[in-house]
């Protein structure tokens, strides 16, 4: 199974601790395809339902269903970066973002990491 940068998967993030996002969540693949092809881990940004986030912050990127392929508005929490084993991912992606949305994600991640 090939996992590609910019694709969105619904992944079970359990087990978690503390304030980490839990349960089945949309995740956006952040790592580059050259790394995603290796038998390592996949770096992602965690998403949540847009209705759960009432304000927009520079750490978040709000994505409409038409921009993601998901059935609901999703906010990607760019301060919630994780690396996951590829075995957590389902066979098929649930959506994909455009280059423009990916650029917004990249900028928010840079902001969060001070890069």
Gist of the model:
The protein is built from 3 helices and 6 strands.
Listing every helix as H and every strand as E from the N terminus to the C terminus, the arrangement reads: EEHEEHEEH
Low-confidence stretches: none
Beta-sheet strand percentage? 25-35%
Whole-number mean pLDDT: 94
Largest sheet, in brief, is: 6 strands, antiparallel
* Order of neighbouring strands in the sheet with most strands: 4-5-3-2-1-6
C-alpha Rg (nearest Å): 13 Å
3D architecture notes:
There is one protein chain. The chain is of the alpha+beta class and 115 residues long. Strands 4-5-3-2-1-6 form a 6-stranded antiparallel beta sheet. It starts with 6 loop residues before the first strand and ends with a helix. The protein contains 3 helices and 6 strands; from the N terminus they run ββαββαββα. The model has no long low-confidence stretch (mean pLDDT 94). Helices cover 20% and strands 32% of the residues.
Structural descriptors:
115 residues; alpha+beta; 6-stranded antiparallel sheet; 20% helix; globular
Write the layout of secondary structure elements.
Blueprint: E1 7-12, E2 24-29, H1 33-36, E3 42-49, E4 60-63, H2 65-68, E5 74-84, E6 95-96, H3 99-113
Antiparallel strand pairs: 1-2, 1-6, 2-3, 3-5, 4-5
């Amino acid at each position: 199974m090939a996992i590609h940068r910019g694709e969105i998967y619904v992944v079970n993030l359990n087990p978690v601790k503390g304030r980490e996002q839990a349960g089945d969540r949309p995740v956006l693949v952040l790592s580059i395809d050259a790394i995603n092809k290796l038998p390592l881990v996949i770096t992602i940004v965690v998403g949540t339902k847009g209705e759960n986030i009432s304000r927009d912050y520079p750490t978040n990127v709000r994505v409409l269903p038409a921009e993601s392929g998901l059935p609901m508005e999703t906010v990607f929490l760019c301060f919630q970066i994780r690396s996951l084993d590829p075995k957590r991912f389902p066979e098929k992606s649930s959506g994909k973002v455009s280059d423009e949305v990916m650029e917004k994600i990249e900028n928010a991640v840079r902001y969060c990491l001070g890069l």
